[in-house]
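User: Hey, quick favor. My workstation is busy. Could you predict this chain's structure for me?
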Amino acid sequence: MVNVSSIGGLLPSPLMAPYSVTKFGALALTESLHHEMLMKGAPVQVSVVTPGTVKSEIFRAARPGETLPPEAAAFNARLQTLADKHGLTPPQEHAERVFEQVAEGKFWAIPQPEQLFPSLQPRTDMILRQETPRLPEI
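Assistant: No problem, here it is.
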């Protein structure tokens, strides 16, 4: 069984609350199912895919309205730049990395560890220190 979460399932983001909620939920569901399959001795491998950015026009196509605060528009533009510079092509690079990791039996299918790992430790440290969240630089 393979479920798709996202880096957004580990790192919440402003302007994408509904997306973050669903991706956190997909991750929690998948991890719970993994444990349940082990408890039942079921021969079912469970994996979660946590993709990062994909080469697309998603943030350009959103075309926020004129009433959007400049900070929000700038954040949206930074996300599009990230997709342009570091995004994987969906059918080729992304799929190959995911299929390879799932075939290896990995629970965590992380096609872009270079995007996730640098942000994951600072978030974990922030939680452990019980600090108020702050927006990281992209």
